[in-house]
Automatic annotation (TrEMBL):
Keywords assigned: Ion channel, Ion transport, Membrane, Potassium, Potassium channel, Potassium transport, Transmembrane, Transmembrane helix, Transport
Pfam families tied to this protein: TMEM175
Annotated membrane topology: Multi-pass membrane protein
Family in the record: Belongs to the TMEM175 family.
Record-linked InterPro entries: TMEM175-like
Name under which the protein is recorded: Uncharacterized membrane protein
Reaction catalysed by this enzyme: K(+)(in) = K(+)(out)
Transmembrane segments: 12-33, 53-70, 91-108, 120-140, 161-189
């Protein structure tokens, strides 16, 4: 397969992705800044009480984006090249990442007991997880894109289980909205389920 990409291409792709993620994770703090800059005279305790939802949304989204970046970093550490399809899917992954600050603001403003907000947030996570899973599948199907010393180590089954768990969390967040975003704790089952699948 003829390629016109240079060795710097993968570095530029990763650097652009990292910069975009850094901007998205930085935007999460803006609602917290607004709490201080709203002109109200409050003590720190009152500020924390008034902004409970905002702080919770920030914490959840910071952990979510950090974990997504870690997964992306893990996959691309195995690659020495990429395909045009991978590039397009990576932009889909990025689009979902930069959308998270918007859904975070919705969580802070509306609350975690609104089924529509929860569904939008978890749905965004599903897009992020699925797009990275597609990149993993493409890498598995094209071993020449992987670095020789780690070739064959990419396994997309973990991402598949995470998608399944997120779909369950999505349904439950709509059916039982009182639990809200705490349905995301189901993701802790992904690790044990992945290990069980691999052991079989």
């Amino acid at each position: 397969m003829a390629k016109s990409r240079t060795p710097r291409g993968l570095d530029r792709l990763v650097n652009f992705t990292d910069a975009s993620v850094a901007i998205a994770i930085t935007l999460l703090v803006l609602p917290l800044v607004d709490l201080v800059a709203d002109g109200k005279d409050r003590s720190v305790r009152e500020l924390l009480d008034d902004g409970q939802g905002t702080f919770l949304a920030f914490a959840i989204s910071f952990v979510v984006i950090a974990n997504f970046w870690t997964g992306h970093h893990r996959v691309f550490e195995h690659l020495r090249d990429y395909s045009p399809t991978m590039l397009r899917i990576n932009f889909l992954w990025l689009a979902s990442i930069v959308f998270i600050p918007f859904t975070t603001q919705l969580l802070a403003d509306v609350g975690t007991d609104d089924p529509a907000v929860n569904a939008l947030y978890i749905g965004t996570m599903i897009v992020t997880t699925a797009s990275l899973a597609l990149i993993e599948v493409l890498a598995v199907r094209s071993p020449d894109l992987q670095r020789p010393e780690v070739r064959g180590q990419i396994d997309a089954r973990g991402a598949g289980i995470a998608i399944a768990v997120l779909l369950v969390a999505l349904v439950l967040s709509i059916v039982v909205p009182d639990v809200g975003m705490f349905w995301l704790f189901l993701l802790f089952l992904s690790g044990p389920l992945t290990k069980a699948l691999r052991s079989r």
